[in-house]
Protein 1
Amino acid sequence: MIDTTTYRSRLEEEKAKLEKELLSVGRRNPTNPMDWEPVPQEVGQESDPTDRADLITHFEDNTAILKDLEIRYNQVAAAIDRIDTNTYGVCSISGEEIEEDRLNADPAATTCKTHLNA
Ligand SMILES: [Zn+2]
């Protein structure tokens, strides 16, 4: 049986950090809390065409950053869920226990080393 205490605190820590980063580039979709949407930077009063182009670039950047953050956030949240439901540390392919060093490298891992790229 895996001792999940350390993994849980590491996951909770990462989740809080990701939440903060997500909130700096996006907001939660009001109709789907698992989904995040990017927010454009505040539009200034005197927005000339140059500013507008800059704004669109910012928005696209945020979309890419947000997507990566969202994927990781959902992985981390799912791992915490698995700890709560006592299914943590089990390979989703083979159902065998995930190696400790793999969990140490990534506490949100869902597969053992054999099924790393599955
Ligand atoms: Zn496996």
Protein 2
Amino acid sequence: MKEKMKAAIYKEFGGAEKIEVTTVDVPEVKEGEVLVRVKAAGVNPVDAAVREGYLKDFLPYEFPVIPGWDVAGVIEERGFSARRFEVGDAVYAYARRPVVQHGTFAEYIIIPESYLAAKPENISFEEAAGIPLVGLTAYQSLFDAGKLQQGQTVLILGASGGVGSLGIQLAKNAGATVIGVASEKNHAFMKELGADHTIDYKTRNVGDATKEIAPDGVDLIFDCASGETLQQSLSALKPSAKLVSILNQGQNLDKSIDFQYVFVEPNSSQLDKLRKYAEAGKLKVHVSNTYNLEQTAEALNQIQTQHTKGKIVIVP
Ligand SMILES: NC(=O)c1ccc[n+]([C@@H]2O[C@H](COP(=O)([O-])OP(=O)(O)OC[C@H]3O[C@@H](n4cnc5c(N)ncnc54)[C@H](OP(=O)(O)O)[C@@H]3O)[C@@H](O)[C@H]2O)c1
């Protein structure tokens, strides 16, 4: 049994200066849980938002907090009745628990095995660690909430980042036409991922540019950017269309819009689907940078820029 591990922690909410990298106890592996050796941990904007305390009224927490909700790693130990995986199996997970406390920016994490799915075999641990949170977000937004169908057109706002870059691919796999919105420097990247059309929010009114491409409007707007970009895009919604946002919870939106806010939930069955797409070569993760545990604060500063291309990952 592993008793100590290196982890990034914070003992109070605040900025990057609150992060320390230290040695902490590894909790005991309980019934239904496994000990996973973290090979890579994806970094998400929410990790910085939680550290700043923005979600403290919404998600219970216990200090010290180890940040990080994405993991790809190897099963090292199994608790009583945890028998879905063998010791040594490679797995990945969106590891958000009901209480914010034990995250993935550490050498190990203990987690109920129900959160885990087998890691896609054909991609690296770094790439796999970039899938769970953003892949599930894109999946739950496009299909569970957005009901995206083959032949429909989807406009993705903020399409070159973590969620959007997987969203483009999932929408294409479903047979949709994809219009991706990001700055000009990321247009070739969005096209490589499968976007049929791209729009630069810095130089165009997003609604006008969308209507030049799809004169009747789009069937779904998947909003991963919000703000002015979202407001501009609304003029391109077909009358029967849906708007799904992962940022806006209904503020400044006309009540007549068929709108849904999504907050991503762990779902290992959907991770299995994402694994199959990855193994079929239909879901790729662009890891634009990797950091070690000591660079956790730096990684969180980068993700807070809101201009990360693809994913960034911590390798403990
Ligand atoms: N509710 C949920 O469950 C949930 C889940 C995941 C993420 N989120 C939130 O959703 C947002 C996106 O997450 P992410 O991981 O994809 O972030 P990310 O990796 O930082 O990507 C940000 C994306 O937004 C684009 N962008 C920045 N400013 C923009 C603007 N004014 N108009 C249009 N696009 C703009 C960036 O493109 P350029 O670099 O080209 O500007 C990039 O494509 C974050 O705020 C995150 O906290 C919510």
